Structure formats: C-alpha cells, structure tokens
C-alpha cells in the first residue's frame, strides 16, 4: 500500500493492562460537551448569515416573508445594511446578492477571536492543565452568550461575540487533546469523536432554535437564539470544575501520585505500571523543551507540523461550511418554500449527527485512513454531480427552475456529501492532530490546528457569497478540486494511527516511507522501539 509501512496498532491494546471503564466513558462524555458550544456557535453564525439569507431570498423573490425577529435584529443593529439591502434587492441574479461586508465581518469576527485565543490556550493548557482551559473556555462563552442575549447596542453584541470566540478557541484547543489523552489507545478514536458528535448536535439544536425563534415577533426571538448559548456554556464550565485532569498533564506538572490514581481509575486496574512509565518518560523528554513553539518547527516534528497545518485547512476546503452556513439559502434557491427549506436543512443536520455515529463505530476498527479515503471519494462524486445539475438548470445567468424530482435529487446529493464529511474529515480533522504530537508540543500543535481551522472558516465565511457570485455553479467544482488533492495527500502521506498509544506515536512516523527520515532513533519510546525491532526481524 502506498503510504504503507506504517505501524499497525491493531494489537496495541494488549500492551497496557486495563480496559474501558465507566469512569473514562463518563469523563469523555462530559469533556466532549466542549463541542456543544462550538456547534451552537456555528448555529449562531447561521443565524447571522440567515440575515443575509433573508435579504437574498427577498432579492430572488422566492419569499418576501413578514417582519420577523431577524428584520428587527437587523434594523436595530445594522440599520444601514437593512436600508441598503432593501433598496438594492431587486436587481441581481440567483447567484449574486447584495454584499454586506460589515455583517459578514461581524459573523466571522468570532473565528478571528478563536484563532488568537487558541494560542493563549496552548500556554494555559500546558502550564495549568487541560481542564483549566476548558473551564476558561466555558466561562468566557457563558459571559459572551449573556452579553449577546441582553445586548443593548452593537458594541455589546460585538464584545459578546468576541467572548464567544475566545470560548471556542480555548475549548477546541483543550478538549480534543484531553479526550485523546484520557482514552485507552484502542478506543481513542471513538472517545475523541465525542467532541465532533457534540458539535453536530450543537449545530442541529441551534438551527432548530433559530428556526423556531425566527418566526417570533419582537425582540424576544433573537435574544433567545443568542442567549440560549448559555446552557451548553454552563455545562462545559461545570465539566471544567468536576473533571479530573489527564494523567499525562498531571505528570507533566509534577503531580505523579494523583496521576497514577487517575490512571488506575480510568483504566480500571491497579496495574498501570507500563503505561505510567511511558507517560513519565514522555514527560521527562518534554522537560528538556523550554519553548514548544520553537520545538515544533524542529526537523523531528516536521511531519506532525505539516499535518497540524494541512489537516484543518483541508477540512475547511472540503467546502462543508458552505453547506452548514448557507444550506437554507441554497434550498430556497432550489425552489423549496419556507417550510420545506426548514425541513431540508433539518434533514441534512440530522444526517450530520447520524453519520458521525458511523465514524464512532468504525474509526478504531477500519482506521483513520479508510474513513478519510472513502469520505473523500464520496464527497467528490456528490460535489461534481451537484455542480452538474445546478449548472444545467441555472446556467451562468442564474435564471431557471428545478423540477421537483431534480430538486429532491440535489437535496439527496447534498445529504450524501454531508454524510461523507461527517464520518471522515469532520471528526478526523479534530482527532488526528490531537493524537500525533509528543507531549511537549501537543498543546501548541493543537493550537495550530485550531488557528488554521478558524482561519479557513473565516476566509470561506467571508468569501463564499462573492465567490458564488463569480464562480456560480463552478464553486462546487472549486471545492471538489481540493477534495481530490486532500484525498491523494492522505493516501500517500498520512500513516495509520489507530490503536497506537499516544506517547508512542513517533514510531508511526519512523515507520513511514516518507516521514521516516525525519525521525531520529532517540525520539522513539520503548513501545515504538519494540515495534521497530519486530518489523526489522
Ligand atoms: C468543522 C466545522 C463544521 C462542522 C460540521 C467541524 O468538524 O470544524 O467547521 O461546521 O464540523 O459538522
């Protein structure tokens, strides 16, 4: 196999004593709630984008709608946008729309805040532990949602939104790392994907709430949509208080006794010597590093560094957030009415949740590579077909109408695309970067992952509408080009990491046909050395 020569971690579970306990499941489920705020947040972005949607919809005259909560929100906080949109609405094609950079920037500002915050989170996560960052993330998100829910002016709204961004930055940096460290190697994929599971649930719930409140008259609607984010935020904050920290982090911060106790508890056995020893070794190695940001660019960390940059960037370049953010608009342009668009958006949101379960069930058996490759091919086929059908009907002018059958088929294609993403790049975009770094650079590596993820979310959020206007149906082909590149990249350059103990990951890189030359022998831990010897024998 190309990209082969990797360590098959299939038997790695037998290396350490102990198994999966109720306690570790509990900590991971509570920890994963960190994903809820991320998901709810994407849902809130959709709310703001729906303000655009409303304008677009007006503009393409599918449905003018009444004075809803969204109009009131827009009139109150962005009066010039509202006036201009109403005046210019009539003149553009289905692909193009009035562009409000202010509103678009406001929507994306959260991702910028998250990007910056994740850097600071990496320092806190290393110095004070994973749960401290989760706690800070939950609390700032809580403050942000309260400020937004009670916003009296646009300043409160913007500051609130920056707080939300800080919350997301802290949680996305710390939670995936926490989950990967708590989980036993043979179940790391499944438990880590709890984060993405919570994200998809957060998106779905937020969307349902948005749709419910959008119909309300007066100010209550938008206040509820934005303010209800306080519920998942409170859950994460509480999690940050009650959860134990990961043994890896405790050892790294000199609390060996407590680390051993927690390790015994989460593995369900007294005999954790071997694993404990490996964690201690990893921690000793990490002590020789005083600046993780300098260390991360060293040659022996090159493969991990490249992955922490490319994986999140590729995840966003699948184009998923075009669907997440703009699905209701898209469905309206396909000719669905208000209710039907709502239903279709809920269906694709539901597919997103259910398909994530498939990933949980298969990731530790089939492995990461198999899911990446299958998901990539599935997304590619769906994107090309979607471009073909939209192009055939709307051409380059944006004028035309789908037959009912064709519209339903495109909805099916979009759902199949979402499913492909939901069991591949969605969860694995968070799992893989969190499990490939050595202890000393793990927080910094995960911060890089968040930074690149947020940067590309921001860029796509900012540029989508303009791109749609210029590239038209070719936009789907634009993203499918990236899907081809990323799928080939995985095939040749991403080694399999399933089942390999997290502190022994250097062995995976050492055994890889391309990355092997970057890894010096001294970097290998005892487990990885054994694997090397077995492979040579
Ligand atoms: C991505 C988000 C995306 C979500 C969809 C996450 O893994 O990071 O950008 O909106 O999946 O479920």
UniProtKB/TrEMBL annotation:
Q: Which UniProt keywords apply?
A: Membrane, Sugar transport, Symport, Transmembrane, Transmembrane helix, Transport
Record's bilayer topology term: Multi-pass membrane protein
Main localization of the protein described in the UniProt heading: membrane
- Which branch of life, at top level? Eukaryota
Q: Which residues form the Major facilitator superfamily (MFS) profile domain?
A: 27-498
Gene Ontology cellular component terms for the protein in this record: membrane
Name the InterPro entries for this protein. MFS_dom, MFS_STP/MST-like_plant, MFS_sugar_transport-like, MFS_trans_sf, STP/PLT_plant, Sugar/inositol_transpt, Sugar_transporter_CS
Keyword Membrane among UniProt keywords: yes
Transmembrane parts of this sequence: 20-43, 55-74, 102-125, 132-151, 157-179, 191-209, 221-243, 305-328, 340-363, 410-432, 444-467, 473-494
Give start-end ranges for the coiled-coil region(s).
none
Sample GO molecular function, one term: symporter activity
- Cellular location(s): Membrane
Q: Which PANTHER family match?
A: SOLUTE CARRIER FAMILY 2, FACILITATED GLUCOSE TRANSPORTER (PTHR23500), SUGAR TRANSPORT PROTEIN 11 (PTHR23500:SF460)
Q: What family, per the record? A: Belongs to the major facilitator superfamily. Sugar transporter (TC 2.A.1.1) family.
Q: What is this protein called?
A: Major facilitator superfamily (MFS) profile domain-containing protein
């Amino acid at each position: 196999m190309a990209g082969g020569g990797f360590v098959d971690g299939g038997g790695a579970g037998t290396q350490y004593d102990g198994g999966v306990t109720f306690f570790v499941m509990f900590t991971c489920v509570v920890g994963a709630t960190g994903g809820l705020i991320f998901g709810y947040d994407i849902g809130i972005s959709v709310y703001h984008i729906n303000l655009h949607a409303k304008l677009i919809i007006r503009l393409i005259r599918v449905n003018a709608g009444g004075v809803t909560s969204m109009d009131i929100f827009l009139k109150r906080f962005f009066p010039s946008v509202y006036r201009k949109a109403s005046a210019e609405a009539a003149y553009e094609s289905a692909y193009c729309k009035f562009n409000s950079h202010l509103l678009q920037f406001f929507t994306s500002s959260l991702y910028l805040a998250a990007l910056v915050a994740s850097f600071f989170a990496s320092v806190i996560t290393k110095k004070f532990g994973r749960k401290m960052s989760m706690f800070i993330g939950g609390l700032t998100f809580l403050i942000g949602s309260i400020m937004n829910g009670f916003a009296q002016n646009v300043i409160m709204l913007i500051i609130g939104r920056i707080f939300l961004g800080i919350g997301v930055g802290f949680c996305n940096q710390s939670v995936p790392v926490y989950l990967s460290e708590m989980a036993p190697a043979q179940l790391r994929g499944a438990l880590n994907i709890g984060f993405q599971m919570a994200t998809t649930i957060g998106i779905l719930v937020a969307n349902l709430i948005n749709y419910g409140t959008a119909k309300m008259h007066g100010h209550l609607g938008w206040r509820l949509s934005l303010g209800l984010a306080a519920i998942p935020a409170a859950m994460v904050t509480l999690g940050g208080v009650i959860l134990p920290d990961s043994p890896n982090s405790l050892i790294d911060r000199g609390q060996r006794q407590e680390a051993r106790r927690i390790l015994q508890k989460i593995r369900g056995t007294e005999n954790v010597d071997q694993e404990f020893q490996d964690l201690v070794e990893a921690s000793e190695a990490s002590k020789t590093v005083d600046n993780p940001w300098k260390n991360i660019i060293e040659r022996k960390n090159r493969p991990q560094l490249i992955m922490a940059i490319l994986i999140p960037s590729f995840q966003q370049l699948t184009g998923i957030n075009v669907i997440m953010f703009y699905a209701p608009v898209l469905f309206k342009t396909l000719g669905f009415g208000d209710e039907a668009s709502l239903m279709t958006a809920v269906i694709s949101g539901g597919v997103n949740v259910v398909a994530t379960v498939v990933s949980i069930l298969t990731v530790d058996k089939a492995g990461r590579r198999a899911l990446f490759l299958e998901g990539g091919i599935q997304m590619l086929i769906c994107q090309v077909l979607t471009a073909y059908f939209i192009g055939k009907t709307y051409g380059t002018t944006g004028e035309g109408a789908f037959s009912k059958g064709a519209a339903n088929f495109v909805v099916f294609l979009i759902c199949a695309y979402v499913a492909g993403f939901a069991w591949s790049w969605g969860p694995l975009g968070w799992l893989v970067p969190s499990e490939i770094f050595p202890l000393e650079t793990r927080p910094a590596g995960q911060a890089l992952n968040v930074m690149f993820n947020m940067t590309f979310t921001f860029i796509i959020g900012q540029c989508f509408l303009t791109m749609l206007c210029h590239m038209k149906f070719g936009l789907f082909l634009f993203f499918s080009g990236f899907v081809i590149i990323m799928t080939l990249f995985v095939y040749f350059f991403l080694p399999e990491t399933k089942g390999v103990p997290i502190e022994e990951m250097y062995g995976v890189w050492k055994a890889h046909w391309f990355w092997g030359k970057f890894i010096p022998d001294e970097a290998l831990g005892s487990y990885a050395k054994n694997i090397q010897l077995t492979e040579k024998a």
